[in-house]
Amino acid sequence: MAVSGSRPATKRDFPWWLAVAGAIALGVALLIATSDLYAQVFAIVSRGIGITVFVTVVGFALATAVGLGIALMSLSGSLALRQIARFYVEIIRGVPVLVLLFWIAFAGVPIVVTGWNAVTASLQEAGILGELRVRDISLLWRAIIALSIGYSAFIAEVFRAGIQSVDEGQVEAAKRSGFRASSVFASLFCRRRSAPSCRRSAMISWPWSRIHPSSRCSALPTSPRWARSMRRARSAFLRPIPSLPISISF
Q1: Most buried residue, 55, 97, 125, 212, by CB count within 10 Å?
Q2: Signal peptide span per the entry (predicted)?
Q3: Distance from C-alpha of 105 to C-alpha of 143, rounded to nearest angstrom
Q4: R_g over Cα of the chain
Q5: Considering the domain boundaries, does residue 194 fall inside one?
Q6: pLDDT in tens, 29-88
């Protein structure tokens, strides 16, 4: 008896979850449109959306650059570079993001500023450079740096797995054809068939998945004006239930 090679057709479920989400969004929109208090609070909350997008985009770009460098170090022929990369990935991945956030903001940045002033002391005395102060680096950028360091360790593993998934025969064929190492490396990231793990769901989903953890930046007063507005908005509610629709919309 011949077995058909075609896969059986599966019946797709109706996306009820999408309908429920749309109904919730519609209800929130009606609350905002019909209540001056909800409209005022939503206007305040919406200011944080810009901060969230900025932190996510800039943090992901920096984390991608650092992660790519760490991935190349982990695949290097140098034992020292491989060990440094492995140390970075294993340690950073084991540190909670919130702990890393506070350490970078209140310990790491002051240490770097002190070291920078010590190295450039002669240039500062000559008037070429000015003295760098800790308060010159805003808490927003400290949070971005902390998130970039934390997420770069995970992105490094994505890049490393993607590069190692490429067949060695393709790399050897490119080298024997006269391509330089830089050209071979560029082909791995520019051609869809050459780097399936680097260009598909793993990297595409990362910016979206980083939007939620970016809320940890609220532990730092990255935007004092927005924080004061949120405190005033919370004081406007005499009970916690009305703030739930606003939280859902955010």
Answers
A1: 55
A2: none
A3: 7
A4: 25
A5: yes
A6: 898 888 887 787 787 777 777 788 888 889 889 998 999 899 989 988 889 999 999 999
Q: How far is it, in rounded angstroms, from Cα 150 to Cα 92?
A: 6
**Is 191 within the bounds of a domain?**
yes
Determine the Cα–Cα distance for residues 20 and 27; give it in Å rounded to an integer.
Answer: 11
HSE (side-chain half, CA atoms, 13 Å) at 135: 0
How many domains are contained in the chain?
Answer: 1
**Which tokens is 59 given?**
């943090």
Integer Cα distance of 104 and 145 in angstroms:
8
* DSSP letter string, 166-195: S-HHHHHHHHHTT--HHHHHHHHHH-TTT-
Q: Which helix (H) or strand (E) holds 42?
A: helix 36-74
Asked if residue 39 is part of any domain, the answer here is no
Which of 41, 5, 100 is CA-nearest to residue 246? Answer: 41
Distance CA 140, CA 142 (A): 5
- 120-161 pLDDT, tens digit per residue, is 888 888 888 888 888 888 888 988 999 899 889 988 988 888
145 assigned to some structural domain: yes
Q: What does the block give as tokens for 94?
A: 């084991």
Residue 151: closest CA among 140, 161, 141, 143: 143
Q: What is the CATH number of the domain that holds 207?
A: 1.10.3720
